Amino acid sequence: MKTSKGIVPIFFACDDKYVKFTMVTLKSIMENASKDYEYRVYILNTDIKEETKKKYESVKKDGFTVEYIDVSSYYDSIESGLPVRDYYNKTTYFRLFIAEMFEEYDKAIYIDSDTIVLGDISKFYSHNIEDYYCGACNEQAMLQTECYGRYVEEVCGVNRNEFFNAGLMLINCKRFREDCVLDQFINLLGVYRFQVTQDEDYLNVICNHKVLWIDNSWNVEIYGEIKYKDEEINMIHYIMWGKPWHMKNGPLGNFFWKYAQMTPGYDEIKDIQKNYSEEQVLRDMEQAKNLEALAINETAREDSYIKLLKKGEIAVHSIDRLRIMKKIREYELEGRFSEDVEQDPPSREIIPGEVDYLKKKVSSKLKTKAAYFIARRYLNKIIRNKQMIIKDIEGIENLRDLDSGAILTCNHFNAFDSFAIQVAYEACINKKDRKKKRFYRVIREGNYTSFPGFYGFLMRNCYTLPLATNMKAMQQFMKSTNELLEKGNFVLVYPEQSMWWNYKKPKPLQKGAFQFAVKNNVPVVPCFITMEDSDVIDSNGFKVQEYTIHIGKPIYANKEENSKEQIHHLMQENYSLWKDIYEKTYNIPLEYAAR
Q1: I need a surface site. Which of 51, 117, 438, 470 has the fewest CB within 10 A?
Q2: DSSP states along 64-90
């Protein structure tokens, strides 16, 4: 819908039974909103029936469009880990999907369906939240009830004066996407289960110190002391058990009924109130007491979130690493398998004669010897510190029994994975034979010319074979690699071309490694590393992966085929073996995400 007016996107989340209340809130928004904007209303759901949608078609106004959005696929991906209880249900989590599902919006309003909006919603939307995750108002329960205030401070690690109510939020969708807030939520859900306000707890932990505080007249909660006069209120929020359709003559209930009677669900809502028994009221009061008791018990726990965090027993995931993981998912969807998701340092071109590939110069030999010694000590250190954990090596005989040089292939998912293949090589080849069968790595040009410091020294000197863009330098690379293979050495090539951090699937292969093998009449030894979580947390807050290194049987070209057919055969065999290992290890079919 094209319009010259500004767009205000507004999101609700409800199920089929709650649409009648959503429509009351929506009607109150419609009646009080400025006509200077276009309002696009989205009702997130998984189960709203067509007859329900038709029933409420009459709730409309010029300048408003209403659309029902099915979020089943997003919800299904995290459903098993979601806590729900009492007056909460699954729809409370739908607000977390808005930024990812609606990339066209930089910011959006989320509002609960137990609210009445008396102010102009466009004024709420107009707040500048560029530097914040969201704009919101204080949660009164935490300010007015001591046990809740203590709970959020001592369990969530959030000051009670800086804990927001998530029933009306101005979401910075752009920042949510950039900082992977949905992923932060899912990952936090995996390490700790908040019990009291559930998704609101998670949101406050993630958004702590990243909230624009909006005047509390925009979220006047029916809880404790109400500090605003009727004419000052912009939004009423009937939280917890203060619903007008349950309470008779409850605070500010007249505003709810004013707008309820403008909707097709009025009679049904009135019947709910009429039939709400004293027994149910007593049950509500009991649940309120139970929630306070839960907050007290959670605060007393020795394994509360903030205590575990301070002890280092749980970790906050690095936003930078979450961004990388999100980028990997996007690249997989787009089929961009051969592209890196992380930036290499700026590169320069290798000059012909710059690289002593065969280490013929005395200075090269000395540097290589020193680099190997340093690299081996470093490898011992990262293994000792459990920065790299090798659980098992399978198929040692497939490399040990080779009587020729070989191209080794491996999936590329970590800067340390070539160290893992180094360990596998040493497990296969005894020490006295390692001078006859050395282990070399093909690396990128930029890793040789531009990588700084300690890692740069290793890249330039520790049995590495840098590719080159200069034609003459590349010819020197090819000639030297051919000679090394002819002498019986092993050369590691990453045929996927790209490195995707902790990506478990084999990616489609490029030709280079297999061209080397065909040209030099050597086999390809396909290695594939599978991973599982250890109990060790890395510096990014993720579990260090335990590696199992699978060394496949050598693959030989068919001499009766032409070189193109041989290369294709080797690629197919290599990929097939990797696929088989992946599917057997993880017990799932190899499938790539697709749009």
Answers
A1: 51
A2: EEEEEEE-HHHHHHHGGG----TT--G
- The C-alpha atoms of residue 308 and residue 188 are separated, in whole angstroms, by 13
For 75, half-sphere exposure in the C-beta direction (CA atoms, 13 angstrom radius) is: 19
Question: Structure pTM?
Answer: 0.85
Contact 82, 90 (CB under 8 A): yes
Nearest to 52 by CA among 22, 21, 28, 19: 19
CB distance 371 to 457 below 8 Å:
yes
**Segment 507-547, tens digit of pLDDT:** 999 999 999 999 999 999 999 999 999 999 898 999 999 99
Instruction: Name residues whose C-beta falls within 8 Å of residue 401's C-beta, 6 or more positions apart in sequence.
Output: none
Give the pLDDT of residue 82.
52
Which class for 378: exposed (0-12), middle (13-18), buried (19 or more C-beta within 10 A)? middle
**Nearest 5°: CA angle at 386, between 380 and 391?**
90
User: What's the CA angle centered on 440, arms 439 and 442, to 5 degrees?
Assistant: 150
Cα(122)–Cα(242) distance, rounded to whole angstroms? 27
What is the Rg, in whole angstroms, of the alpha carbon atoms belonging to the chain? 31
- Please, what's the largest Cα pairwise distance for the chain? 95
Q: Which residues pair with 548 in a beta bridge?
A: 392, 530
> What pLDDT is recorded for position 1?
42
Report pLDDT for 86: 40
Collapsing DSSP to helix, strand or coil, 164 comes out as strand
- CA atoms of 421 and 409, how far apart (whole Å): 10
Place of tokens 């790539």: 592
How many residues in the chain? 595
User: Do 114 and 21 touch, CB atoms closer than 8 A?
Assistant: yes
**Three-state helix/strand/coil letters over 390-441:** EEEEECHHHHHCCCCCEEEECCCCCCCHHHHHHHHHHHHCCHHHCCCCCEEE
pLDDT at 94: 84
Residue for token pair 């007491």: 289
248, amino acid identity: K
The tokens of 263 are what? 């909707």
- Give the range among 51-55, 175-179, 280-284 with minimum mean pLDDT: 280-284
pLDDT of 509 reads 97
pLDDT digit string, tens, across residues 97-122:
899 999 999 999 999 999 999 999 99
Check: CB of residue 14 under 8 Å from CB of residue 69: no
Residue 594 binned pLDDT confidence (cut-offs 50, 70, 90): confident
Cβ proximity of 298 and 156 under 8 Å: no
Q: Give whole-number Cα distances, 542 to 314, 516, 531, in Å.
A: 9, 37, 13
The counts of H helices and E strands in the chain are 23, 17
- Alpha-carbon gap, residue 58 to 173, rounded angstroms: 30
85: confidence class by pLDDT, cuts 50, 70, 90: very low
- Share the mean pLDDT of the chain: 92
